[in-house]
Structures are given as structure tokens and as C-alpha cells.
Amino acid sequence: MRSTDEAREQIRRRLDAITRVAPAGDEDAEEPDQQAGRRPDWLEPGPPPSRPRARFAPGRRGVAALVLVGVVAAVVGVVGAWRDRPVAHAVAPLPAVEADGAPVSESAPQPAPTPPADPVAPPALDMVVSVVGLVRTAGLVHLPTGARIADALAAAGGAREGADLLGLNLAQKLADGDQVLVGLAPPEGAAVTVGSATVGAGSSTAGTSAAPAAGGKVNLNTATAEQLDALPGVGPVTAAAILAWRQTNGRFTDVEQLGEVDGIGPGRLQKLRDLVTV
């Protein structure tokens, strides 16, 4: 009996041991299945990677450049503000105004305006004189009233070498329309052939006579423009041409030399041959 009880006790202990081990074995058997359905740890999603933060590190050169830019900007701002500053402009004082008959006094006395100086008026050129003969620029000259023969010669450029100035009264006053004829000075001891003269407007020749020669002929070397103009076929233009030839060549030595004057052809020379002399 005792051995039977011991056997039963051993069987019961073994069954209890199997019963206690079986759940543990079941759990261990289920773990592989559960572990097979699970993802590995390295496949689990981790936290999102953090983005790198931008850092501003200009360095020494960058800092120096920024400082330089700031200084330039400050200078530009100061210059612009200085140019745009308001400038005060002086305002001319207003003249005093009378209101209702009562004068309004000014705050400060104004100096009296200085009257403008009278400009010196140039002498009026209201006289025309003809200057011909041995002068540098023969022709008409404009002179002020009261001018003298010396003024007329100066206006004509002065007398040429060899001109006869002794036959002229350089201090004589001229009138409008007068003519000054500057002739050729005679050699020492010789008679005057082409002297100087002053012809008044509508009057006879003064100084050395330039009247027509004997027999009513006009002396080509002493005749005035008026006397030459009076000849038939000779007008003012031809008379001036004769005087110009005489001015250039000195004097006529032959009547035939009239043919060298502009405007005198053979026909006109034929008419003048018996009316003029030298």
C-alpha cells in the first residue's frame, strides 16, 4: 500500500510539474508567432531629421565691408540733407506807399538813387566833303560840323608823298558839299602846275587857281570835278574817273591821255580834244 501511495504521489508530482510547465511552454510557443508578425526595431520610423540651421558669420572682412557701407550711407545722407536745407534769400525792401493820403514810413531809410551819368554823345556827322588828289583814300568823307581841311585830309587817310600842302589852309573850316583838291607840289624853283585847292559848294576855287586856261579850254591838271562835269559828254562819273587817273599818275602831259580814262572812248575823246588842254 505504501508503495502504491508513493507511486501515485510521484505521478501526481509529475503531472503538476507538467501542468506548470505547459503554460510556460505555450507562451514560449506563441512568442515566435507574435515576433514573426512584428517589424524589426530598425524598421520602426524614427523621429524626423532636424534641418540644419543657417548661420551668418561674415568674418572680419565682411564686418569691415559692412562698416564701410554704413559710413558711406551716413555721409550720403548728411550731404543730401545739407543740400536740401532751406536757404534764406534776401528780399529787396518795398518802397513806401501812401494810403489815404498818409505816408507810410519805412523801417530803414533807403539811400537816394544815383542819377545815371549822361553818356557823352559822339559828334554828329552831318557834313559831307569831297577829298580828291594825292590822298590815300580819295572820295567822300563824313565830318562833324565845324571840321577843318586838316580833319578832311585825316579822314581821307592823309596826303601822299609829294602832295602840295602849302596851297591849302589846313585851319580853314569846311562846309557841307566842299571839295578839297590835293595837288602835286612843284619842284624847287619851278612854277606851280597842279596846285592844291579848296572848292566851296557853289563858289569859285580857293587857293591856287584852277580856272579854265586861256581860250576857254579846261586844264586837265587843274580842273575841279565841277569844271570837268561841265564839259560836253562828261558826267559826274567820268569827271571822277579823270580825277582818279590824275591822282594815280600825277598829271596829264598830253590830251590824248584822256583815252586812258575809264569811260572815254575815241568818239568822246574827239569831242573833248578841242575843249581841254594840259
UniProtKB/TrEMBL annotation:
Domain of life where this protein originates: Bacteria
Entries under InterPro entries matching the protein: Competence_ComEA_HhH, Endo/Exo/Phosphatase_dom_1, Hlx-hairpin-Hlx_DNA-bd_motif, RuvA_2-like, Soluble_ligand-bd
Any GO CC annotation of this UniProt entry: type II protein secretion system complex
Annotated keywords: DNA-binding, Membrane, Transmembrane, Transmembrane helix
Membrane-spanning segments: 63-82
Segments of skewed composition (Basic and acidic residues): 1-17
Keyword Transmembrane helix (UniProt): yes
GO BP term, pick one: protein secretion by the type II secretion system
GO MF annotations, alphabetized: DNA binding
Domain Helix-hairpin-helix DNA-binding motif class: 226-245, 256-275
Region annotation Disordered: where it falls in the sequence: 1-56, 101-120
Compositionally biased spans, kind Pro residues: 110-120
UniProt xrefs under PANTHER family: ENDONUCLEASE/EXONUCLEASE/PHOSPHATASE FAMILY DOMAIN-CONTAINING PROTEIN 1 (PTHR21180), ENDONUCLEASE_EXONUCLEASE_PHOSPHATASE FAMILY DOMAIN-CONTAINING PROTEIN 1 (PTHR21180:SF32)
Protein name stated in the entry: ComEA family DNA-binding protein
Organism, as annotated: Rhodococcus spelaei
